[in-house]
Amino acid sequence: MSTGWHVVAVTCLALEARIALGPGVSVICNHNSRLVASLEETVKRGASGIISFGIAGGLAPDLVAGDWVIGSGVSTDQGRFPTDHLWARALLEALPGVVHAEIVGVDTPIANPLEKRRLHVRTAAVAVDTESHIAARIAAAHRIPFAACRAIIDPAHRELPPAAMVGLRHDGAPDVVAVFRSVLRQPRQLPALARTALDARTAEAAVRPRADRGSF
């Protein structure tokens, strides 16, 4: 996808933003509550396409931390947004062994395994994140190509502890104080938080080399 176009990469973590940034690629790293305005402004300045890049929650039971999903489409409450087939094919050729399947976008993270299972059954999506549906909707409104490339961080059977849900600042950097306060309130979540941290390291290790090879 390194065509000389101006591609906008949409992420929620500062780490993802640093990985995605490169020649011809600008990055928006924001929570979905602020993402719409930032993305609309960037696209209006001139963008040739949007890619949703970073981590996602697993919905399919066979996916593990570090597995990659190239979206065939993004399901939302407003309907389904297909991804650009040429971009998807280019990513699949650049990243062999990844899963090509549906992603679902939600406004708040899905932490509970039962909720993940229900969402998987209802949508047939294999992964979920909180940015792809916004990026897909704006790309469709501006009639520019859209792709989604996401690495699984928490498998479908894993429940996210409360500290993992409050652990980010608005700039995508870890909110250490919020995590510490959450652990103080509920110290029994420490084992689950440790497992989540290990899954996060696995996903990060998958993101770095794949992003280098994918070169948007």
Summarize the structure.
This protein has 8 helices and 8 strands.
Explain what this protein looks like in three dimensions.
The protein has 216 residues and is α/β, with parallel strands linked by helices. Helices cover 42% and strands 24% of the residues. The protein has 8 helices and 8 strands. Strands 3-7-6-4-8 form a 5-stranded mixed β-barrel, surrounded by 5 helices. It is globular. The termini are close together.
Rough shape? globular
Name the helix and strand elements from N-terminus to C-terminus, one letter apiece. Answer: EHEHEEEHEHEHEHHH
Number of strands: 8
Q: Number of helix segments?
A: 8
Q: Strand order within the widest sheet?
A: 3-7-6-4-8
Question: Percent of residues in helical segments?
Answer: 40-55%
On the 0 to 100 scale, the average pLDDT is: 81
Unreliable segments of 5+ consecutive residues: none
- C-alpha Rg (nearest Å): 16 Å
Strand content: 15-25%
Cα(first) to Cα(last) distance is 5 Å
Major sheet summary line? 5 strands, mixed, barrel
Classify the secondary structure makeup into a structural class: alpha/beta
List its salient traits.
42% helix, alpha/beta, 216 residues, 24% strand, five-stranded mixed β-barrel
Describe the protein's topology.
Elements (H helix, E strand, L loop, with lengths): L6 E5 L2 H7 L4 E5 L2 H13 L4 E10 L9 E9 L2 E4 L2 H10 L4 E7 L7 H11 L3 E3 L2 H11 L3 E9 L7 H4 L10 H10 L4 H25 L2
Parallel strand pairs: 1-2, 1-3, 3-8, 4-6, 6-7
Antiparallel strand pairs: 3-7, 4-5, 4-8
Helix pairs in contact: 1-8, 2-5
